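Posting here for the record, re: PMV.
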Amino acid sequence: MTEQDFILLPYPNILEEGNFSWESPSNIALVKYWGKKKDQIPENPSISFTLNECKTITTLTFTKKESNKDFSFEVYLDGNKKDDFKPKIQTFFERIESYLPFLRDYHFKIETKNTFPHSSGIASSASGMSALALCLVELEKQNVYRFFNFQAIENIDLNFFNQKASFLARLGSGSACRSIEGDLIVWGKTDSIEGSTDLFGVKYPYKVHQNFKNYQDTILLVDKGEKQVSSTVGHNLMHNHPYAQNRFQQAHNNLEKLKPILESGDLNAFIKLVESEALTLHAMMMTSMPYFILMKPNTLEIINKIWRFRQDSGLHISFTLDAGANVHVLYPENEATQILEFIKSELVAYCQNGHYICDQIGFGAKKID
Ligand code: PMV
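Prediction output follows.
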């Protein structure tokens, strides 16, 4: 596939008005994406678990308008108008316009809500951008279906729909392209994963051991404040970063190493690889110029407690980190009872206001009727 494949032959905007709703989940990377080229092309491949509970629900209401120079849209979060979200969506529309030629022909009302608290330090960009991309591709699909009298059209099949939604979501926020489907999604071209591409996320195509089914992710909300350094700035600091080329190569190598681990169910090897990825991500931040630290003292307290408990109990508890201070505690479903007990008795004390979210692997976005 190339970018051009996402531009359909011209079709008329048959729908005058209406609305579509989609819910789309967040995701947590195991091998991290950090560093990008022009047009949101990743510097290295990544793989993530799609989450189940942390999601954004978006309703897109559209009304045909006189086509003119400007995009016309309003944005609401939990029923409240959010003009401060508009610049990001304006940029998103500019980036995707050549793939969705109808964007200037409608007025859009975008109503969105998250299942996780807005100020939780959990980025809503992956779930939010993917939910919006899905609503927009839905509008294109419905116009095209009407034009062709609802006959099955080869290039608007489910596969194409998901690829286009992922492709567009990527242009909103890179990691958002991994939120359309589940349960393991690869984004970024790498030789060891057949079908992988820089343009959109693809389902991990190889065998996955039972140990990794329903894998649990308890998110410990260590710091719910706004990050001091945004992901955009962080990605850019990988340009001219002294360790960048080694890091990008390491991500390719780690994806290759993960294949036999996922197949055999080797939990110890999984833990080593995933924790090393998380700490490497933060090491890249600390060795950028300017350098920065997103972990907080409680992030380190939690990591140390996890390591001690793992050693003492022999259980397969591990952690990963996003670009923030929160800790994702990962563990297999069959060890959930004991590990959750440990989390509640030993780790929740390090969370801001004792807040945490119990999540697990999910299977992707859904249309809401
Ligand atoms: O999608 P962005 O630009 O917010 O970048 C996200 C990067 C990490 O969350 C740190 C890693 C990843 O692969 O999700």
